[in-house]
Amino acid sequence: MTKIVRRRSAGIIAALAVTTLVAAGCSDDKDDDASKASGTATEQSADMGGSESASASGTENSEDVSLDAADGSKVTLTGPIAAKYSSATEKQKTDLGKPMTGEDASGKGENGVSFQQFDGGVITAKGDNAYVTWGKIRDAWNVDRDKSGKPSDDGEGGSAGPLGAPTSDETEEGDMKKSTFEHGEITYNTKTQKVEVTVDGKVVDTE
Predict the structure, then answer these.
(1) Which of 18, 36, 144, 168 sits in a 20 to 30 Å window from 115, CA-based?
(2) Keyword Amino-acid biosynthesis, does the record have it (predicted)?
(3) 91 and 27: one domain?
(4) How far apart are the first and last CA of the chain?
C-alpha cells in the first residue's frame, strides 16, 4: 500500500509540474500577443493622423519625420505620409518646401484621407497608399466645388470635393503634367500655363 501511495503521489506531482509549465507557457504567449497588439494599435493610431497637427504599399513600419515649419514650429509626419516624404528625392523635398501649419494644413477627413499641406504641394494618404499632388494641380484640386465640379462657395475642395482623393503621383509627358483622382483628373500645360479639370468625364471650370 505504501508503495502504491508513493507512486500515485509522484504521478500527481509530475502532472502538476507539467500543468504549471503549460500554464506558464500560455501566460508568456498571451503577454507576447498583448504586446504585439499594443504595438499594432500604436502603429494604426499613427497611421490615422498623418501629422501631429493632423506611398505606396509597405509603409506600416515607417519612422516619423520631424520638419521645421515656416513659422518656426515643428510638424511631425507619421505613417504613410512620413514614408512618402522619406522616399522623395532631395529635389522633390525642395520643391515641396516647408510644411504648412494651421487648421486646414493637415488632418484626416471623414472619408479616411489624411493630408499634410506644404508650400509647393500636398501629401495625401488613404490606407497605405500615399501620393504627392503639386503646385497648380494642387491649387485646382483644392478649389471648393459643387457635386458637378463647378466652383462654388458652398461646395467642398480637396478629397472631400467631387474629384475625391488622389489615385496617382503626378505624371509628365512633354509639356503636360497630370494627376488622377477617384472621380477625374487635372492636367497642367507648363508651356501654356493652362490647367484643365475633368470631373466624371466632363471638363469643368478651373476656378
Answers:
(1) 36
(2) no
(3) no
(4) 100
Residue 107 and residue 158 share a domain: yes
Instruction: Say if 54 falls within a structural domain.
Output: no
Contacts of residue 197, Cβ cutoff 8 Å, sequence gap at least 6: 140, 149, 163, 184, 186, 203, 204, 205, 206
pLDDT at 46 over 90: no
Cα separations in angstroms, 136 against 140, 181, 195, 199: 6, 15, 7, 17
Instruction: Supply 15's cell numbers.
Output: 502532472
Q: pLDDT by residue (tens digit) across 100-141? A: 999 889 999 999 999 999 999 999 999 999 999 999 999 999
* Average of per-residue pLDDT across 14-25: 36
Spatial separation of the C-alpha atoms in residues 172 and 142, rounded to whole Å:
21
Q: For residues 194 and 181, is the Cβ–Cβ distance under 8 A?
A: no
Residue found under cell 480637396: 158
**Is 25 found in the same domain as 78?**
no
